[in-house]
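Figure 6 in text form: structure in, sequence out.
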């Protein structure tokens, strides 16, 4: 395993499924109160 400092990592532009909210091909954690619509978004 190689350890790299975060300030040495070059950032790359993301493609967006929902611009500014939901990036494509990235790990996304969807959290919120019950009834907020998390399942609806996840199933869409």
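Output sequence:
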């Amino acid at each position: 395993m190689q350890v790299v400092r975060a300030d040495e990592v070059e950032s790359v532009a993301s493609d967006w499924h929902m611009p500014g909210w939901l990036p494509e091909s990235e790990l996304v954690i969807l959290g919120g109160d019950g009834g907020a619509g998390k399942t609806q978004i996840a199933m869409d």
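Caption detail: The mean pLDDT is 89.
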